[in-house]
Amino acid sequence: MRTSEEIYHRVRWDGRFDPARFVMGVAQRGREAKRVPLPRFTPGGEIPWHRVLFFEADGELVWDRSSGTDRIDATEAGRVRTPRRLPSPYFVSRTPHVYAADRSAWVPVDTAAPAPAPVPRSGPLTVLTWNTLWDRYDSELIDTARRRPLMLDALREADADVIALQEAEPTLLGLVLAAPWVRAEYTVWSDPAGRDTAEYGLLLLARVPVVEAGLHALGPHKAVAAVVVAGPDGPLTVAATHLSSDHSTDGARRRDAELADLATGLAAVEGDLALLGDFNDGGDTPQDRLGMADAWSLVHGADDRTPTFDPSVNPLAAVSSLTGRISRLDRVLLRTEGPRPASAVLLGRTPEPDGLYVSDHFGVLVALTADVPLEADEADETDAADEECAAGVVRRVAAALPGAAVHPTGSRRMGCALPGADVDLLAALPGTVDPAAVRRRLAGALPDAVGLREVTGARVPGLRFTLDGLGVDLVTVATGTVPPAEAVARRGELGEAAAVALSAVSDAEAVAGAADPHRAAFVRLAREVKGWARARGLDSAPFGGLPGLAWAVLAARTAQEAGRLGPLPLLRHFFATWATWDWAVPVGPGEPLPGAPLTVLTPTAPVRSCTAQVSPAGRELIAGELLRAWEILESAADGDPVPRALLRTPPSPYPDHAGWALVSVRPGADEGRFRGRVLALLAALARAGAPDARVWPRPCGSDATHVQYALGLGRTPPDASRLAEIGGELLRGLPGATLHRTAPGRETELR
After folding, report:
1. Which of 191, 195, 665, 693 has the most CB atoms lying inside 10 A of its own CB?
2. How far is residue 656 from each of residues 36, 213, 534, 650, 715, measured CA to CA in Å?
3. Pairwise CA distance, residues 97 & 698, whole Å
4. What is the DSSP string of 265-278?
5. Stretch(es) of the chain classified as CATH 3.30.70
């Protein structure tokens, strides 16, 4: 006969048993044995093993000290009925509870009245994460007693299917559990009478069927709680966590350890997974480390840095902030094959009339739907609205420049622009061009144009501004005595700079035409590829990536060869083709530049490479990214939707760089000058022994006066003095611009 300790640990760690279905009998002096649910028993605690008298599973006696019974291996009692999605030993089972009105108590799900069979969901599943601000600190400044009922009202109005709260202190828990709307509809992830919420501040509520629940401790007062619920495309694991903040001693190191712990444990969770919570990290480190996608970025775009913690507007955040930094700390991270985010919004951004906010954090509410491709008419409607807006911009600019020939260029002319993309225009103007005069004409004719400014450092003059919500990049070309309407066709007569600028029109037409007879397939493929390249940081020529024209050239060639294929097979064919391409062979009508690592040529005269900025390290990076995407698509069946969440997960900085730096520069003209010097910066770093250095092509942060760019220093970074020399040389003439190494553990600020 085995000991009680052996039986306990067998049930606790053997994945074939469900600890939530076991009860232990504990001896009490002069009274009947006390029945204790096995998950609530603490080994090595106040109760010694010799006081454990029996174990029951599903009401059956499976081990008994007095009779010598040991039947745990001879019965099906206590066995897992369905495969567990929260694997032991990482997750310790918890017993979900529902409110039984007839008993006026929260009771285990298994002992409640039978619930009706789950009905397959026909609509989205909404999940909400919110840090509620426990008054453990600064209690006299944050008016918790008034905020608690406000939080309860906000949760009710959110109407979420799954609610994940952090810093849910016992008094708030009591209010939540007493709320009629919670009692009527929601399941609590753990025993409300237990210590889980008080110990870790985590509370999970679900009004969809909960089939499993568990907890894993990450450290003192830090944990991850999880439930498995009926999602929009089958079972979905929803986990909630709250990582260490900088208020903690050595907070950055603790967060790093917690993320490593989560990465190990969540990797064993099968199926679709959503991780919600306050990560205390304003960068992309959590999703990069965990290999998950940020729902907010999937909905709003990778560049959207809308904060969930904003000390500049929320006085509660100002009280608790150590730095005053505006950050997006609260996330809904996804690792799913099916559910995709249809919407993502912030809650709690409007204060009470007296200025009181419900919390120092804003809540994040995400709606998840089954990953069904957009219906054709819906997609067409979305594209048509965006194209009509862009066409209106072209008409307004043309009307503002009478006598000019105004042409759309780039992806807008090829028909493969992503929604919201900038409108690239070329204006052929008679005679000579005075940029200041053109700016004045536009300002007078377009009073609603925002940020109208001249572009410096271009081959030909240009202007940038925003009109009707779209960014506009306008290049101007003087045509002299050549009629503007004939300038594109006669561009060879106007000098090299003008010819190159005007070829943007002929190049776009030639690329789209090269895809015939599969132009529709080209448009679809080019949009997928451009969205992927943007998410992976490969789309910016000034930062050593491939411009949109190069990606379009590759997409057009693929569509011309295999445009008969469906969306997923065609995308797979694209990545298979270019992941295995011999880049010593140029793509296009001409010869590679001597020593060029990678050559994609423009399709019309003057023929030139549009990839001259790609370094050998850049070529290896691009080739590796193409291979990664191909491997992802190889695992998908032809009839599956395109797994965009996996393809477009931002890259992780950790494996690639031994050090990081931040470049801080004023937005506007100075930022434009810096972007124009990035290739020189990378070349200087290569000469200093860091040929694989990389600058992320979009800002990673900002404050009231500056924007920051993340600079990966490669596997062999230069020393501090050499880096300072490079920074001083490259940032000369940019007042207030700085380049400095980040301290260890500050990677959270990047991207």
Report:
1. 693
2. 51, 37, 19, 13, 7
3. 46
4. HHHT--SEEEEEEE
5. 660-749
Q: What is the pLDDT of residues 640-670, one digit of tens each?
A: 778 887 788 777 654 578 888 889 999 877 8
DSSP letters along 701-732, please? EE-SS-EEEEEE--SSPPPHHHHHHHHHHHTT
CATH for the 660-749 domain, from 3.30.70, 1.20.120, 3.30.160, 1.10.287: 3.30.70
Q: What is the DSSP string of 370-411?
A: --PPPPHHHHHHHHHHHHHHHHHHHHHHHHHSTT-EEEE-HH
The pLDDT tens digits of the residues spanning 316-344 come to: 888 878 788 899 999 999 998 778 888 88
Tell me the helices (H) and strands (E) count for the chain, helix number first.
Answer: 21, 30
Outline where 237-354 has alpha helix (H): 251-267, 285-290, 295-300, 315-320
In this predicted structure, the answer to whether residue 352 has a pLDDT above a threshold of 70 is yes
Residues in Cβ contact with 530 at an 8 Å cutoff, skipping those fewer than 6 apart: 411, 416, 418, 539, 548, 551, 552
Segments of the chain assigned to CATH 1.10.1410.10? 515-637
The CA-CA-CA angle for residues 694, 700, 703, to 5°, reads 135
Return the H-helix or E-strand segment holding 129: strand 125-131
Judged by DSSP in three states, 334 sits in strand
What class does CATH assign to 515-637?
mainly alpha
CA–CA gap between residue 127 and residue 366 (Å, rounded) = 5
CA proximity to 288, closest of 330, 257, 259, 261: 259
For 187, list phi and psi in degrees, rounded to 5.
Answer: -100, 135
CATH 3.30.460.10 in the chain is located at 395-490
Token representation of residue 311: 């000390």
Q: What pTM does this model have?
A: 0.55
CATH superfamily, domain 395-490, is Beta Polymerase, domain 2 (3.30.460.10)
Measured at the alpha carbon of residue 562, what is the angle toward residues 559 and 568, in degrees to the nearest 5?
A: 85
Q: Please state, in angstroms and rounded to a whole number, the distance separating the CA atoms of residues 720 and 726.
A: 10
Class of domain 92-113+124-369: alpha beta
Sheet with 462-467, strands from edge to edge, namely: 405-408, 423-429, 470-478, 462-467, 450-455
Structure tokens at 614: 């790609």
| Measured CA angle at 199 (ends 194, 202), to 5 deg | 85
Tokens 């910066």 correspond to 681
CB contact set of 398 (below 8 Å; sequence gap of 6+): 404, 406
Confidence of residue 725 (pLDDT cuts 50, 70, 90): very high
Count of CB atoms within 10 A of residue 300's CB? 16
214, 202 Cβ separation under 8 angstroms? no
